[in-house]
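[Q] Does anyone have a clean structure-token version of this?
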Amino acid sequence: MSKLKVDLHDVYNNSKAIDQALQEAIDEAIENRIKLIEIIPGKGSGQLKKRVLRFLQQKHIKQQYHRVDKDSKNWGRLFVRFKHS
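[A] Here you go.
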């Protein structure tokens, strides 16, 4: 299974860059029929992870993917899963 990895450590303090990185990953996953995006907001204070989850909950974004899973072994990581018809 192919997957995309988005590490947000470098742009953690730039909301526009975070949104752009996430949107580009979603677009690429859809275009290339990739089933999984691994997003790494890091462990920090948890603010970046909340920011990512808020982005993913937007209605126009949410309809593009199947579900979001939190990594049970590493709380600094999220998985966005896609079902391509």
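[Q] Thanks! Anything notable?
[A] The chain is about 40% helix and 20% strand.
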